[in-house]
User: What shape does this take?
Amino acid sequence: AFCLSLAFISLTMAFLQNDFSLDYVARQSNSLLPYYYKISAVWGGHEGSLLLWVLVLSWWSAAVALFSQNLPREMIVRVLAIMGMVSVALISFVVITSNPFNYLLPDFPMDGADLNPLLQDIGLIVHPPILYMGYVGFTVPFAFAMAGFMTKDHKGWVTPALPWALCSGAVLGIGIMMGAAWAYESLTFGGYWAWDPVENASLVPWFVLIAGIHTNLIFKHSGYALRSTFLFYIIAFLLVLYSTFLT
Assistant: This one.
């Protein structure tokens, strides 16, 4: 988490200092761009948004490590191992195929191509970080579900997974409402419900997670719907991965 935070700060500084020797900065920014759009341009493109994805995942992993010390050691070790494997896979993808630190040396442009005009909006500043915070949080209930599946205690994971599912679902819900307002402002009413893939791609996993939260509560109070809870959490996480690469 510390190293990824350092990498993200370094990329942000490159944008603020107009370092157009970086290919990603040259494509996403411009020397005349206001500083607040330069900061939001960090996650305005493919490479930077994936770096933000893995950064947020590292924060969620750190939070799980800090706030789950009262859980059985075998369970929390498995949960963190699963989250670690997801981190390794996505960080490898960023480094190999989507590295935002690729240089244009020795010939680099004196100025950048500028940020997409549609993204020069307050929506880009606040919406993606909150959306990703909720989005990536789906990894936690998924990791608990997989950890429960891998151990003999197939029921012990359900109760500790619920607060994380509620937290990530609530944050994503706020992000979806922000995105709805932004899409409505930019594309009018049809933009949100009809053809904006970003908003719909975040809405579908949220529906599945909410279903999982409901079955989680049912199991907690009645002992039924364990398999449904397990299934919903896994499908929600897979939809998040699919939606990430779709958008």
Notes: The CA atoms of residues 113 and 204 lie 34 Å apart. The chain has a mean pLDDT of 89.
